[in-house]
């Protein structure tokens, strides 16, 4: 229902913020500095004795605050909120079924159940209902059956009972097909569960559990946890998640630093537009690199460490080069 849908999306909002924050920050800093230069607003700083080096350091300090904020969201807030969103779906009942029923369409949202409604008379009344449980072609199982009814009514305040009228049931029993007709039966929907994955995904796990599992697998040790299975074939996904939470935010100060190359030239120069485009391409390239390197955070300890130090080493190299350019 609407409440479940609303809360599910609300708890997934931190994940969206964590995903788009580096892109929004990098692009925003670039265009803000570009606007300052075109409006001669940067001259206010220079004429009041603020050096370009000090301006850059203040901007980097601001970027570090955003980086810490990004790490907190990615490592604590987002996993906890996503896990809460999954628990809402897991604990939800079947009162969403009436909203999913549409005439002339097969409904397989519920695990092990397919429903087809030929005609919907009203919100709670239907005609020519087809219900299939399990796989009727697998005669080894005794929980497979097909129900056909000429009429159907959703009853009680929670609409968990589907009353079927004038129909027929075909079921399996001991490798045989059994069929019988009925005038009225009540089909209970309260025990049915949706196809929602109820076990926590890697992006929903606490960071500490992921770190322990990853370190155990890298050192060929065994780690047990009640929330998930710590298996060797999941090491790549675990390392990619660690990269996304703890390494990728370090590109935020690097993005601010690259945008500061706009301070090394002025709008009065003939090639100002071309140089601005180059700076933008460097910022965009850093964003692409931050996303691309996540794919290479695999099950190699050395490879993961090298990828982890790429933004840090790049930051110091670019910072020294930028300060040199600013002094000139």
Write the layout of secondary structure elements.
Elements: H1 2-11, H2 13-38, H3 42-47, H4 52-91, H5 97-100, E1 106-107, E2 113-120, E3 125-133, E4 145-155, E5 161-173, E6 176-188, H6 207-218, H7 235-247, H8 251-259, H9 272-292, H10 301-327
Antiparallel strand pairs: 1-2, 2-3, 3-4, 4-5, 5-6
Helix pairs in contact: 1-4, 2-4, 2-8, 2-9, 4-7, 4-8, 6-7, 8-9, 8-10
Query: What about the largest sheet?
Result: 6 strands, antiparallel
Order of helices and strands: HHHHHEEEEEEHHHHH
Helix content: 40-55%
How many strands appear in the DSSP assignment? 6
Distance between the termini: 63 Å
Roughly what is the average pLDDT, rounded to an integer?
85
| DSSP helical segment count | 10
As laid out across the biggest beta sheet, the strand order is: 1-2-3-4-5-6
Uncertain runs are none
Features:
single chain, 328 residues, alpha+beta, six-stranded antiparallel β-sheet, 10 helices, elongated
Describe this structure in words.
The chain has 328 residues and is an alpha+beta fold. The chain has helices at residues 2-11, 13-38, 42-47, 52-91, 97-100, 207-218, 235-247, 251-259, 272-292, 301-327; strands at residues 106-107, 113-120, 125-133, 145-155, 161-173, 176-188. Strands 1-2-3-4-5-6 form a six-stranded antiparallel β-sheet, with no helix packed on it. Helix 4 (52-91) crosses helix 7 (235-247).
Summarize the structure.
Helix content is 51%, strand content 17%.
């Amino acid at each position: 229902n609407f409440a479940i849908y609303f809360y599910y999306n609300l708890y997934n909002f931190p994940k969206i913020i964590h995903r788009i924050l580096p892109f929004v920050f990098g692009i925003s800093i670039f265009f803000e500095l570009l606007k300052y230069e075109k409006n001669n607003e940067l001259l206010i700083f220079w004429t009041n004795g603020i050096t370009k080096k000090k301006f850059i350091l203040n901007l980097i300090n601001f970027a570090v605050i955003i980086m810490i904020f990004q790490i907190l969201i990615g490592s604590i807030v987002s996993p906890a909120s996503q896990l809460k969103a999954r628990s809402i779906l897991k604990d939800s009942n079947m009162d969403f079924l009436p909203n999913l029923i549409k005439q002339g369409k097969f409904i397989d949202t519920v695990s092990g159940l397919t429903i087809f409604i030929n005609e919907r008379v009203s919100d709670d009344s239907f005609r020519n209902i087809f219900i299939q449980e399990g796989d009727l072609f697998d005669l080894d199982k005794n929980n497979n059956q097909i129900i056909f009814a000429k009429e159907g009514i959703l009853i009680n305040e929670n609409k968990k009972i589907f009353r079927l009228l004038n129909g027929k049931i075909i079921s399996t029993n001991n490798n045989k097909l059994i069929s019988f007709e009925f005038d009225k039966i009540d089909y209970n929907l309260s025990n049915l569960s949706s196809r929602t994955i109820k076990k926590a995904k890697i992006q929903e796990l606490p960071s500490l559990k992921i770190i322990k599992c990853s370190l155990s697998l890298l050192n060929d040790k065994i780690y047990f946890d009640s929330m998930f299975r710590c298996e060797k074939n999941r090491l790549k996904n675990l390392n990619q998640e660690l990269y996304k939470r703890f390494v990728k935010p370090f590109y935020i100060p690097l993005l601010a630093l690259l945008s500061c190359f706009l301070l090394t030239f002025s709008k009065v120069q003939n090639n100002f537009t071309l140089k601005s485009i180059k700076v933008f391409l460097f910022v965009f390239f850093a964003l692409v690199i931050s996303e691309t390197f996540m794919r290479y955070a695999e099950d190699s300890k050395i490879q993961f460490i090298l990828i982890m130090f790429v933004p840090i080493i790049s930051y110091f190299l670019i910072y020294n080069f930028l300060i040199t350019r600013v002094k000139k």
